[in-house]
């Protein structure tokens, strides 16, 4: 059904328009014969006075005449309150004074005097309100769910559970480590490769340590008040402690758990920090500050030409310090755990060992390398050449500065080797008897004398010596025998240099 006033569609059974309030249907009042005179029913035992009865009858007759006039001038019974059906040709009917000139139409707009008309609420408005309330409830629920999902407590608990399950790759993603070439996920997983047995527990509970501490601070304050502790030191301590508790970028949680088969609780503390980034929309990202899983400033000392590798990754040695053929490499950060260490150098046997990094650092700080068999063979041949060169130079009387290039620079810091060479020269040159006129060194054999000490190798050897000299009677005499020598070598750059004079004056 459509409203004849505003055109709004209404329900078929509606009596009034839900938009403007216009009456849609007439009241179903049964037709009454206006010519019939209504006689009031008198209660039993009661009579009406004649004067009253006559007055009532006059009123009824008057109303009946007015009704008949209206029927004659308005056969269709149309409601026209402005017409004068009872008095044709007279002044127009103005309607009741409270309705004004517009009659019932004005009543629908203004209502009765003293009455405030309320516009009916439409169904669309009701539906829109319900939808708005539902949207707000949905937003509040979603916000609460997302806040719990991205909370630091949830991240701390998830991290602990992944560690308990020994899922090291996932545990790494929860952490915020210092920027370092060795603090990678690969290194983290490999450092914990031997820790694979899951932790079985019966129960677990996580608590905000700051909340516990705050309760303790409150109780401590109560006790202080009881005992009258009002000193400045106490106040300063309490202020510092409260400032730490107010740090919104740091959260500390205590995870208490009971392992299967155990009666007592175990506890682990997890520190969470804000990264300054957003995890999702306006929720902050929280990471685990696991300072117990890494150490700083681990130093290894290796030969200066060697390369250090940990779990197959080359360690940067660009900032290493070098001294006397050694270099010290300081690694800024390393994960605690097991590592495969390898130190390699050309001509030396590789050093391959498993090492354990603890919170105190490494058990192995200096690594010595052993020469390969090929290196020993080459070095033995070099020792023979160096001995021949030195003996022949001494026989020819050459000064030390012409032979000093075969010696390690560090061994020349004093004049010891120089003095030994000059004594050898004087002995070989000789004056008069004992003067050597010819010398041949042959059949030189060398072997490793002792375990190398990193960059230094000691060779023990023998050689066949054949010399011609002038004896006491000024006769030329030959002597052929075997001599023993020790040659110590140290690597300087890519060359092996002598650390001592292999033969001295007493060998001739």
What does this structure look like?
The protein is of the alpha+beta class. Helix content is 31%, strand content 27%. It contains 10 helices and 16 strands. It has helices at 50-73, 104-110, 123-149, 152-164, 168-173, 185-191, 209-227, 232-245, 373-396, 416-429; strands at 201-208, 250-259, 266-280, 283-288, 294-303, 307-310, 313-314, 321-323, 326-335, 337-344, 351-358, 361-362, 436-448, 456-470, 476-492, 495-498. Strands 7-6-10-11-12 form a 5-stranded antiparallel β-sheet, with no helix packed on it. Helix 7 runs antiparallel to helix 8 (232-245) and helix 9 (373-396) packs across helix 10 (416-429). The longest helix has 27 residues, at 123-149. The radius of gyration is 57 Å and the shape is rod-shaped. The model is unreliable at 31-39 and 76-112 (pLDDT under 50).
Brief summary:
By secondary structure, the chain is α+β, with helices and mostly antiparallel strands. The chain has helices at 50-73, 104-110, 123-149, 152-164, 168-173, 185-191, 209-227, 232-245, 373-396, 416-429; strands spanning 201-208, 250-259, 266-280, 283-288, 294-303, 307-310, 313-314, 321-323, 326-335, 337-344, 351-358, 361-362, 436-448, 456-470, 476-492, 495-498. Helix content is 31%, strand content 27%.
